Amino acid sequence: MTETAPASPSRPTTFTTRSPATGEPLAEHPLDGPEEVARAVDRARTAQAGWAALPASRRRDHLLRWKKALATDLDTVARTISDETGKPAGDAALEVVLTLEHLAWAARNAARVLRRRKVRTGLFTVHQRASLVHRPLGVVGVIGPWNYPLFTPMGSIGYALAAGNAVVFKPSELTPATGALLAGLFDSAVPEHAGLLTTVTGAASTGDALARSGVEKVAFTGSPGTARKVMAVCAETLTPFLAECGGKDAVIVTGDADLDAAADAIVWGALSNAGQTCAGVERVYAVREIHAALCARVVERAGALSPGAGAGAAYGPMTLPGQAGIVERHVTGAVEAGGQALLGGPDSVRAPYVAPVVLTGVPEDAAAMTDETFGPVVSINAVADVDEAVERANASRYALGAAVFCRNGRAGAAVAARLRAGVVSVNSVLGFAAVPALPFGGSQDSGFGRIHGEEGLRAFTAVQSTTVQRFTPPIALTSFDVPAATRERAVRLARALHRRR
């Protein structure tokens, strides 16, 4: 929760963050406007010149020092995340651990991935030596989410820095302390490059100012609606834009799957972080012969879990004010449309907490099946066969993540290949998130572009192609002095060569 303090002539406008669990105030933060954002971008641009000039090995060493600082202060970082999001301390600590893995990979692999590479030439360009190199863009603006306020934006921040850029980071107005701590730890670990990572805080107007600030790229994580607004601003100056916008992820369970393993994974994927996960489990399609058995296992496991603020709670509150209302509308609509609540129901919503809800038989056009619920709710529908499951999974306007549970891993991978999702795991959920070398992203309302892995590093670079003439060619076709007969011979030769298969 946040609230804005009124402006006064003697101090800048601020806003107050509050605990999602208790509503108690946490801290006040600056409400940065266009002037503050412009200063941050200018400072980052100055710092970036020196950073880009460093050998890749030096940048790697600096980033690994920052990683060490994050690991050393892991408890403090996790506590900040937990305070701002309401998630249990153990979940927050796991988020930091995954962040460290990705930062380490980006730092250690940037030189290899982005090095200058030779490119083969053709018959008529044999006299040229060709190569390409990935150059830093300059300053990258990163607009981060509140549900994973460290792990998700680090997929852009860490990779952009490793590629030689500076970053201005605008965290969610719900989690500004996490963003400020991230930049502060960088400055303390790498003081000679202070300002390379700067955090600006505020609400939507701050993000708008960052998109208009002249940065060389904007990487955004959030809802499709907000992404369209930010992208429209970027379009005014043709600023490149990367969007990660959530999903309505499906799980397919085949007739020969290990149902205990599938149920365990479905419950974790649906309920962890109170279901506030873009690639979490929201839809399950199980072949009819095992549908009832799978539902029973999911209900048994989910029924043993409950939200809360205590040490025994499986997950915390809804972080975003108003999200509980969305969850209630989706559950109520599903039941009114003919769906059955196997566990919980509309009464499970007791803001800011939502107890586990398991639905079945929900019509495919209900909001609970088409829109992102972003709560601890999962719908398990029966299908005739895997073909129907694939068809239904692909019918969503989201295309981010998915999972397949199948006794045979190779058969499961074949099903995965038929799904439009950008990331798929077989016999696990979210398995891809813990593998730094794998790119992450989706399409349609899930956004476009990729973070993580080699593609994630290249996403924050500009490709420069270079040719160097090694010798004078026997037939200089790029000259007005070439005789017509010579040009005709070259055309005949090319035609003869390319008529071959």
Please characterize this protein's 3D structure.
- Helices cover 41% and strands 21% of the residues.
- The protein has 501 residues and is α/β, with parallel strands linked by helices.
- The chain has three domains: 2-245 and 453-462, Aldehyde Dehydrogenase, Chain A, domain 1, CATH 3.40.605.10; 249-435, Aldehyde Dehydrogenase, Chain A, domain 2 (3-Layer(aba) Sandwich); 471-498, no CATH class.
- Strand 19, helix 14 and strand 20 (423-426) form a beta-alpha-beta unit.
- The strands form six sheets. It has a seven-stranded mixed sheet, with helices on both faces. A six-stranded mixed sheet has the order 8-7-6-9-10-22, sandwiched between helices. It has a three-stranded antiparallel sheet with strand order 1-2-3, with no helix packed on it.
- The N and C termini lie far apart (65 Å).
- The chain has helices at 34-53, 56-72, 74-85, 89-114, 151-162, 176-189, 204-211, 224-236, 259-271, 288-303, 323-336, 367-370, 386-394, 409-416, 453-458, 484-498, and strands spanning 2-4, 14-18, 25-30, 117-119, 128-136, 139-143, 166-170, 197-199, 217-221, 241-244, 249-253, 281-287, 340-343, 349-350, 353-354, 357-360, 377-383, 398-399, 401-405, 423-426, 443-444, 447-448, 461-469.
